[in-house]
Hints:
By secondary structure, the chain is of the alpha+beta class. The chain has helices at 3-16, 30-45, 48-62, 68-86, 88-104, 108-124, 128-145, 152-164, 168-179, 186-202, 206-222, 231-241, 245-252, 258-272, 275-290, 295-330, 336-395, 443-461, 467-479, 553-556, 567-575, 582-597; strands spanning 406-413, 421-428, 431-439, 488-496, 502-507, 513-514, 517-518, 538-540, 547-551, 606-613.
Amino acid sequence: MARIVYLMFLALCLLLTGSGSAWAEESLPPKLQRLTDEAYRCYSARETDNFFEAIKQVKSATEFSGYQETYYRACSYEAIYMFEYVDRKQGVTMSHAIYHHAKDNDSNIGMYFATFTLASIREMSGNNDMAEKSFREALELKEKCLPDESAAPCYLGLCEIALRKKDYEQVQVNARKALDEPGIIPMNQITAWSYKCLVRYNLGDSLGFEDAYKERAQLMAEFGGQGGLFGELINVYQAKNRKQWALALKRTDKLIHQQNRCAQKASIYEHMGNLEQALYWQKKTREVMDSIQSSEARAQMAEFDTELSLTYAENDAKEKELANERLMLWAGSAIAVIIIAFLVFIVIRRRMHMKRLQGVHSKLQEAYDQLEATTKAKERIESELRIAREIQKRMLPHVFPRRRDVDLYAMMTPAKEVGGDLYGYALIDDLLYFCVGDVSGKGVPAALFMAEVTRMFRTLVDGKLPPKTIATRLNHALVEDNEQGMFVTMFIGLINLKTGHMEYCNAGHNPPLLDGEYMKMESNAPIGLWSEVEYEGEEVDDMHGKTLFVYTDGINEAENSQHEQFGDERLQALLKQDWGSARQTSESVHKAVEEFVGDAEPSDDLTKMCIIMN
């Protein structure tokens, strides 16, 4: 919902927290103040090169000076920006560097910012539980080492996590804690009220939303109308709350992040009853979400978290040891018995610390053992996926009819170990049934859904039903218990090989090409989304002498390393040529797509079917 907007806001709060300027220390030298102000401006304007140059100068001017809080704040801000906008792996590496710098310099301020940065990038990666743990550790360090530092950014981070878990009561609690922080800055106040707006909207409390929105608007007017990065998103929700769908849709165009923009458009179009557009933006939202996760970054963060935990244990032991040494100095003038007693006490405590460290070591060894077991399990899963891929291949026809009146060939290449595309055909007397489909999502869930659709198609064609009836019955069966919201786009056809007459039903699928021209057809909904849909069928009077090419969007949306798509025009140009047989046509298209993609990683399954009537 508001996750991505919150991330940018969190980094800005990190800069703004403190005395009211962009940085916490008071009375910065004029030159340094100008640099910090420039960094803040570049972050807001997303001027990446200028931002990193300004941050570099701030770090150079403060690393070995008395402005340690400014230095670590700049490092934290740089890591969060890198992770969010440039390179997620490099962002984790930079946050790790903050931790090592703080540890090497025995800096509690640095440890606070290292922990806060880790919490922020964990939250960006969707690791809610570990992000919450890190935010609470940052709060503990803040109370212990930085009593004048505002805790509002941490509480607002906890607001976002609670909102994602739909724990609206906890969102309210954390928003109130942020508002109760002494010296809270205007942006933090406005954001806390933004969360209150989101809670009211999600609870269906229309009047409560308007009250919270009014309170937030008054704050914005009082402090110069600055709504922070939540500004336009809350305005979208206001229009939705008032059911002003056209206005809400217009406001989505001002949202900065693509995931927010796609998700809001899908929701608004669904409310407007435009199911075709709702489906399109749902698919775009899912594609953006698939691109966010990074297993390598998550592994780095897990290693970072382990090192931080060990450092906290070492710091606790060090502080207790220093306390005991002070007791020994204070007792130097006491009688020998008391000195001996203190020495014995210290020895016992040292042994306890050693046992504690040994316990930490044992846990680390256990973690390494678990990692080894996980690696073996991963290898086993990869082997099973290879087997699953072979099983899936066998589910699709590889032998095609050899007749004088029709030439048919199809092929599917999955982007991952298993795919969600499908094709099939059945020849019953002189009736040729065929289909091509594309299941939403990728990987194992899509493959299982594909297997179910393939099995149902084979069962339904035995009844010699028309394509529109097959689509309707497939839809009714797949909607039941579809908690994951998966669906499939399909083109289902039936050709009478004697007369050449073709009936077909297009269920949200890409329009096929007939003799090199895209077919114009009814815009039916995909199968599996809405139970009440009744599918419409269409027909072609005579297919004799014609070539039909059906495909999935992995063909026209294939991207090369420059993120350029293969596109509809290239595909149409290929199919205006006479390649001879159905197999040669399919293989020529496949080869052209592979050469276009080059070294770029495939993003979707490639499926195509060619039918040539003689």
